[in-house]
Amino acid sequence: MDHNKMALPVGATLDRFIMRKQEDFPYATGELSQLLRDIALAAKIVNREINRSGLIDIAGAYGSQNVQGEDQQKLDVVANIRFIRALRNGGEVCTIISEEDEDMIQTGNVQGKYVVAIDPLDGSSNIDVNVSIGTIFSIYRRMSPTGLDGTTADCLQPGTHQVAAGYIIYGCSTMLVYTTGNGVNGFTYEPSLGEFFLSHPNIQTPATGTVYSVNEGCSELFEAGVTAFVRQCKERHFSARYVGSLVADFHRNLLKGGIYFYPATTKSPGGKLRLMYECNPLAFIVEQAGGKSSSGTRRTMEIEPQALHERCPVFIGSKELVEEAERLIAESAGAPA
Ligand SMILES: O=P(O)(O)OC[C@H]1O[C@](O)(COP(=O)(O)O)[C@@H](O)[C@@H]1O
Ligand SMILES: [Mg+2]
Ligand SMILES: [Mg+2]
To answer: Is 1 within a domain?
Structure first.
């Protein structure tokens, strides 16, 4: 046995883990590894801001709206600035799609091989009330040649083209969970050492569960198949859990089993969540952990994006629960199950 190649023990630092994973790819140039480190660095800085958000003047609205027409919170803007700065300074990223910016952000790193889509602060409505929030990121390799800014085509790639994806959850503890298409691993931040340590190696999500996460306040606006699925969850005495921060609801269900869904409603026919920096990255992670993600009728990662901030309905989590939701939606639409 090649003892040098054994799996890294729980407690290994993120840095060592990234290096070890890079060794698995003989032709790896280290750029993606460096990009993951840049994201981890920005996460540490944003974590510090969040942890003291009740003390310093960082709470509340910023006074402007983003392209989605949502009031930006100060922490949305701070997190956006921190991540963009780290990605720009890191040099590996040519173009960024951010929830907080209408247009593509060209970093000026024309030699950069990667495009990043990011939700700098997820769960904005929970910032001021000390409930878990997060950051979600998705990484693609550019298709256009280096030497120029990234293009719209570089940004509008389907989820199946992702080379890495992850999220940071700022909760009871701060964790970074990511995949490069080779399993899902979780790292817990130790602030006194300023390091992320491997705490959740090779995460596998249970095939089923007894938790459903949906904003039932909109249930009057659900289509028949979704209503039937919610009814079934209740008939099975599932527990309703809804934090209102996608990252927090997703993370719980990833570890314990369950399903989160934000369906299309008559009010928002495209759903609420954004394909490029919310649905696709979490879909990549859940699939790598043995779960499933769907729009209700098709695999999330096979959706061809048409716009940077397009929305899509999402059903994500334990495989059997997502398939059950799809079956009831198909049935109610009269399509063969
Ligand atoms: O308040 P609603 O309609 O239930 O929406 C909550 C959902 O919206 C979000 O807050 C959207 O994300 P942002 O906070 O990044 O805009 C999700 O985190 C959450 O799951
Ligand atoms: Mg979000
Ligand atoms: Mg956000």
So the answer is: no
**CATH code assigned at 221:** 3.40.190.80
Number of domains within the chain = 2
Annotation-wise, does 278 bind a ligand?
A: yes
At residue 1 the predicted structure's pLDDT band, cuts being 50, 70 and 90, is very low
Reported as a single tens digit per residue, the pLDDT across 200-221 is 999 999 999 999 999 999 899 9
Is residue 97 located within the same domain as residue 244? no
14 is in an annotated binding site: no
Best of 97, 125, 261 for a ligand 1 pocket test (most atoms within 8 Å of beta carbon) = 125
99 has binding-site annotation: yes
206 domain-assigned? no
Residues 16 and 165 in one domain: yes
Distance 24 CA to ligand 1 centre (A): 37
- ipTM of this predicted complex? 0.98
| Domain ranges, residue 106 | 10-200
* Long-range Cβ pairs for the range 57-62 (8 Å, 24+): 59/127, 59/128, 60/128
Give the whole-angstrom CA distance, residue 162 versus residue 172: 29
In a domain, 3, yes or no: no
Ligand 1: residue whose CA is nearest its atom 1: 244
Residues 120 and 247 in one domain: no
> Using alpha carbons only, what angle is made at residue 124 by residues 198 and 86, rounded to the nearest 5 degrees?
55
Centroid of ligand 2 to alpha carbon of 246 (angstroms)? 6
What is the per-residue pLDDT across 235-255, written as a single tens digit (0 to 9) for each?
A: 999 999 999 999 999 999 999
CB 258 within 8 A of CB 252: yes
Q: Are 119 and 175 in contact (CB under 8 A)?
A: no
Instruction: Using pLDDT thresholds of 50, 70 and 90, give the confidence band for residue 56.
Output: low
**Mean pLDDT, the chain, as a whole number?**
93
* Residue 186 sits in the same domain as residue 242: no
